[in-house]
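With this grant's support, we have settled on a layout for protein records. An illustrative entry appears below exactly as we store it:
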Amino acid sequence: MEPPSSSRLWASLWTFIKFLPYFCGLFILGLIKGILLCPWACLIMAIGISALILGLWPMHLIWTYYCIIRTRMVGPVVKLLLLVAATVILILWLIVGIPGSVLAGLLYGFLAPIMATFDAVGEGKENTFVHCFVDGTWSTITGSCTVVRDLKDMLFHSYFSIMDDLRLQTPCGKPYEIRLLDIPGALLSAACGLILDVIMFTLIAIYKCPVMLFKGWKRLIQDLIGREGPFLETACVPFAGLAILLWPFAVLGAVLASILSSIPLGLFGAVVAYQESSVVMGLSYAVSSVSIFDEYTNDVLDMAPGSCFPRLKYRKQKNEDSSHGGQLSKPGSFDKENQEGKKPLNRVTSFKNSMDEFNPFKMLDHLFAECKRQGEVLVNEGVITMKDIQETKSGKVGSGVLNVGLPAYVILNALLRSAKSNSNGLILSDGTEITSDNRPKSTLFDWFFDPLMIIKEQIKAENFTEEEEECLKMRVLMVGEPSNLKVTLPHVPSLNERKKAEIDAFARRLQGITKSISRYPTSKRRFDVLVKSLLSELERTMGGSAPANGSQALRLRGGIARMLSQKSVGKTANIMDEDPEAQVARKALTP
């Protein structure tokens, strides 16, 4: 980094000094609001979360035992271990959950008003003086209620969805069972690995914490003088200055995190010993994990590569490069040799914009906005009926057209759009393209994005016709077994058995992805809003007569499916004369 000129240095310091009173005033105002609202937010969250934990705990206990006993995925020994582990987890949940609700309420009620006060003076805000006092007051109270509601959805909706999968899922082969003879060696490896890793990780973290402290201070001060990095935005200068003062606490937290990470890494030696059926391999992993941690910290702190600790082979497979001696390749941000000849990265133009450009929450907002838009179209076409809405409102987990089929239908349209455009990523309805370069950097998002890219390439390779795409869309939308969907699915004579099996496989995979999305707490709340919107649209479209006539709704859907099937063979000219159900559909769709 080039040293800044003296005029730029004094200008930056003068801007920082001028902003200090402004920052102090906002901080004091947010502090006052936090002190006033903290008890109320804490009261709402403590009472609501504690009531949910205590009220649902007996049901969670009974249903967890029942699902573990009834599952066919594992054998008797694994079931016994799962029952013991579930008992420990449920007891810890009861002990930790209630005090944790009080602590979470205190933190949220105190910090939310402070953050809202500073956010009120952000870019694009109007009437900032009023927003400084108003923002973070009522929103903190409603936010506390939203947290309780999301937790309720997780403990009720998501929990039963996951447990039903465990209970009803059938294994592809034999049920998974534990080899009892390998258990003693695995326990020995876990004990030795835990002792070794805790001691060595602690010593390495303490040895390198001064390096992290002074290198961090140096980088933050350089950014402060040069107005780069977190000091780029004027509004972020006080927070970044606070980061300089609190950097020792960040270093202390990193040391504690390193010590805590040694526990699962040390216990993982039991997994290695069990998988390889060798105590020696488990102990070798315990020794090698110290070397891995040492190399990783060297890379993070930009120290000399490599490690002075031995790196032993802990896997029997010969193709595992990371399981034996050798240096870890340094990440691109620290590998200077690999950076030569490459185009330097541009500085971020805005710290706020870089954070808000693409994130999983915005992608979730877009998904539900598309579900609402395309759902209203399907309601007007008679494809989504009152029965589907009532099933979703009744709380049928993972079996509704709205909470599983409709999101899968939206995602399928995006995949088809991307495949036809030969896109390397995913093209949204507004023309935005999400690729591996600009996608949200989140592990949770990767779990969904990578499988979708594989499905997109497979759809492109299949080269479906227009009629086959319509059949695939209906199969994705109508949740259920293929044998139960003959009435609703369009009949396409060109489909052979192989194509039908491929369409069913694509539909099941997309529905499985959206079923996982529906388990997240915020998703259930958004689905409730979507159901209300589609219900009002259905009542407006049908004039309130559809709920009283469920058979007409089924006939309407069957008529539309038959219209699609007859369109595929060029028979739309005489639908009205040959199919009375199609006549009902056409009359309902005709404005």
